[in-house]
Amino acid sequence: MKSINPFNQQVLQQYDEFSDSELRTKVDASAKMYVAWKAKSLSYRILLVKKLAENLRSKKIELAASMTLEMGKIHKEAIGEIEKCAWLCDYYAENAPQLLAGRHVKTEMYKSYVTYQPLGTVLAVMPWNFPFWQVFRAAVPALLAGNTMLLKHASNVFGSALLIEQLFLESGFSEGTFTTLLIGAQKVKQVISAPSVVGVALTGSEFAGASVASLAGKNIKRQVLELGGSDAFVVLADADLERAADVAVASRMLNAGQSCIASKRFFVHQKVHDLFVHKVLQRLQKLNIDDPLSEKTNFGPMARMDLADDLVEQLSKGLSQGAQVIQGGNRDQCLFEPTLLVLPSSENVLLKEETFGPLMPIVAFKDEGEALQMANDSRFGLGGSVWTGDLEKGEQIALKIEAGAVFVNGMVRSDPRLPFGGIKDSGYGRELSQEGILEFVNTKTIVVEQ
C-alpha cells in the first residue's frame, strides 16, 4: 500500500499490511485495554483529552504538512483542520460531564434512573478527505464515554493515521486505547466479526457504507454511517448575492471540492441567475492551482488520479446532457480546474450523482415551490442552505428541505456543539454534540424497589 503525493505523483511511503496474526493481536490488545480504560474516572479521561488538544496545537505545522503531502489539502486548510480537532477536544473536555450525566426519572418506584455506560471497542473506518477531523470527531467522544477505538484509515493517508496514534500515546493514553490498523478493506470483515468490537463508525462512500452496514448488521453491531452528500444551495431573488457568491465558492471549492457537506447543486431564482453566475465567475477566477504546501496557494490538487478520472467521466456525461462550461473543465493529472457550469434543467446527471471534485453546476428556478422540489429531488440528504433577505421565509423553507442540517444564509459545516449526520442515502446516526457521544453507550435503566 502506497502513499502518493497528488501534486507531483511522487511515492511518499510504502506500508506493509498487517498479517492476520498481527491484526488479531491489535484487536485483542484493544479489548484488554477496554477493561482498564472503562474503569478510569471521567475526570482522568478529560485530563488526557485536554493534553491531546495541547499537542494538536503545538504540532499543528507538522501534522498539517502530513495531510498536505498525502492528499493535497492546501496549507491554510490543513492548519485549520488541526485547529478544529483541538476545538473539538476542548468542547468535549468541558462538556462531557454534563453530556454523560445520568438522569433520574420520577416513578412510583423507590428509585429509577438512566445511566450511560461504555460498550467496548469501536471500529472507525475513515476516509482520506479530512484525515484528522473525521477521526477525531469519532474518537474523542467514544473514548471519553469509556470505549476503546480501532482505526482503519484510507490507505493513501496511513502516514496521518500513524501520526494520530502517536498523538494519543504522547498525550498519555495507554497503548491499546486508540490503535491504528494498517489494513485494506478486505480485512474489515475480520475486525467487525471480533466479539470485542461492539460497533462501527464509518465515514465514506455509499458502497463502503452499504458493505460495512451489511457486515455489522450480520454481526448485530451498532453503526453510525456518514456517507455521500449532494447539498442544495438555494438562492432566492431577495438574497444578498455578494455574500451568497462568496459562500457558494468557498463551500464548493473547499478541499478541491472533495467534501461530503460541500454545496454541490446550485439552484438560483431566474431573476438573479445571470448576475449570480457572473459573481461566482469573478471569484473562481481568483483561484490558482499550485503547490498545496505554499501559503500563497488557494486551490490544490485532487487527492488521487482515479478520483480525477471519475470526475472527468461525470463532466463528460453532464456536457452530453446539455451542461455548458462557463469556466474551467481542464485537468492535468490530479490538477483539476475549478469548473463553473450552467444547466438547462435539473435533470442533468451532475445534479443526480454526487460529484466529488470542483464542479459547480447552476440551474435556474421560477418560484420557491420549484426550488424546494429541485432541492429534495435527490437520494442524498446530508445538508443544504437557503439564501434570502427574509429570515422567516428562509427558516420555513429550511424546515421543508430533506436533510440532516440546513443553514439559512450560512455555509453548511460541522460544529462540535451541534449534531451532525444525514438521512436517505447519506447515512444514519449522528456525530458530535450529545447525540454523538451517546451513540456508543449502553443507555441503562436502573430501578430500585423497597
A few lines on this structure:
This protein is an alpha/beta fold. It has 2 domains: 2-227 and 426-448, Aldehyde Dehydrogenase, Chain A, domain 1 (3-Layer(aba) Sandwich), CATH 3.40.605; 231-415, Aldehyde Dehydrogenase, Chain A, domain 2. The protein contains 15 helices and 22 strands.
Features:
alpha/beta; Aldehyde Dehydrogenase, Chain A, domain 1; Aldehyde Dehydrogenase, Chain A, domain 2; seven-stranded mixed sheet; 15 helices
Kindly report how far apart the N and C termini lie.
62 Å
Number of strands: 22
Query: Mind describing the biggest β-sheet?
Result: 7 strands, mixed
Kindly identify the CATH topology of the largest domain: Aldehyde Dehydrogenase, Chain A, domain 1
- Structural class, please? alpha/beta
Mean pLDDT, to the nearest integer, reads 98
At CATH's second level, what is the architecture of the largest domain? 3-Layer(aba) Sandwich
> How many domains, as an integer?
2
- Would you identify the regions where 5 or more consecutive residues have pLDDT less than 50? none
Number of helices: 15
Inertia-based shape: globular
Residues in helix, %: 40-55%
What does this structure look like?
The protein is of the alpha/beta class and 450 residues long. The chain folds into two domains: 2-227 and 426-448, Aldehyde Dehydrogenase, Chain A, domain 1 (3-Layer(aba) Sandwich); 231-415, 3-Layer(aba) Sandwich (Aldehyde Dehydrogenase, Chain A, domain 2), CATH 3.40.309. It is 41% helix and 22% strand. The chain has helices spanning 20-39, 42-58, 60-71, 75-99, 133-144, 158-170, 188-192, 206-218, 241-253, 273-284, 305-320, 349-352, 368-376, 391-400, 433-437; strands at residues 2-4, 11-14, 103-104, 111-118, 121-125, 148-152, 178-181, 197-203, 222-226, 231-235, 263-269, 324-327, 331-332, 335-336, 339-342, 359-365, 380-381, 383-387, 405-408, 423-424, 427-428, 441-448. The chain has a seven-stranded mixed beta sheet, sandwiched between helices. It has a six-stranded mixed beta sheet with strand order 7-6-5-8-9-21, sandwiched between helices. A hairpin with a 2-residue loop joins strand 13 and strand 14 (335-336). Helix 2 packs antiparallel against helix 4 (75-99) and helix 4 (75-99) runs parallel beside helix 5 (133-144). The longest helix has 25 residues, at 75-99. The radius of gyration is 23 Å and the shape is globular. The model has no long low-confidence stretch (mean pLDDT 98).
